[in-house]
Specification:
alpha/beta, binds S-adenosylmethionine, Rossmann fold
């Protein structure tokens, strides 16, 4: 098997595994925790980091989380992020006054909900869309609360996705956080490159996903973007995990 064939095999196996996955319902009542905070509070990364614990973290891949955070995992919004990274990312996004958002790969939907709620405190969102290959009941419920959001169940590697994307001229922010393999990550970036002012990548520092790191380095080297990284790690975790990179089109700054 040559290199390309073996990479495609990995992608195929990944999709088969995904089809067996289920999402776990979110406790959407916790969005009130964000709404109750004022802009001064939400502009401070330390506050947002502690708020994320109350919002609740995901418990898949628990070995990537320090033991001190385990008590917050498996509940609430099940956000699949490191608070130490995501808090700083959100604070910077708040300053950029984002007006539309696409999240590619939402899993249980927690990061999507937290991002939408946070961004809307700083600037109104015209629309926000979460997409995933697997269903997400919680986002359908969330749509009852936030009418400017949508969930679309679609495979980003399909022709149908390309046709769906044609409906949108522009996304202010796109977060790519789906199957962390080089070919798919590059396809997803290319699919939104000309529509997105800001592209964020998850897992740029994750030891398990060198393909994402590779794409991130390529994006930085285009020199078309102002790039920032949120890759702080927790003490007591030996390997490097997660990590968010944002690439802001220079003309958007
Ligand atoms: C790491 S999870 C997303 C985590 C989420 N962004 C968060 O922070 O909570 C990756 C998601 O990508 C989705 N995914 C993987 N390949 C996909 C594809 N080809 N099209 C759409 N979604 C895909 C998976 O079903 C999974 O729910």
């Amino acid at each position: 098997m040559n290199n390309i064939e073996s990479k495609l095999k990995i992608v195929e196996q990944g999709w088969k595994k995904l089809k067996k996955l289920n999402t776990i319902p979110l406790d959407l009542k916790r969005v009130a925790l964000i709404n109750s905070k004022n802009l001064e509070y939400l502009s401070d990364a330390a506050n947002v980091e502690s708020l994320m614990l109350d919002l609740g973290l995901n418990d898949e891949g628990l070995e990537e989380f320090p033991e001190s955070l385990h008590q917050y995992c498996g509940q609430g919004l099940r956000i699949w992020q490191y608070p130490i990274q995501f808090s700083k990312y959100l604070v910077d996004l708040g300053k950029l006054k984002i007006d539309s958002y696409l999240e590619i790969g939402i899993r249980h939907g927690g990061t999507f909900v937290a991002t939408v709620e946070y961004l809307q405190k700083f600037s109104p969102l015209k629309y926000a869309i979460g997409i995933d290959i697997i269903p997400c009941q919680s986002l359908l419920e969330y749509k009852q609360i936030q009418q400017n959001i949508d969930f679309v169940q679609i495979n980003t590697q399909s022709q149908e996705y390309q046709q769906w994307l044609e409906k949108y001229e522009k996304f202010d922010l796109v977060l790519i956080d789906s199957f962390h393999e080089e070919i798919q990550c590059r396809n997803e970036f290319m699919s939104v490159k000309d529509k997105a002012n800001i592209v964020a990548f998850h897992d740029i520092a994750n030891i398990k996903y060198p393909g994402v790191r590779k794409i991130w380095e390529e994006v930085k080297n285009t020199n078309e973007y102002d790039c920032r990284e949120y890759i702080d790690q927790y003490l007591g975790i030996d390997l490097s995990y997660m990590g968010i990179g944002i690439a802001v089109r220079k003309e958007r700054l």
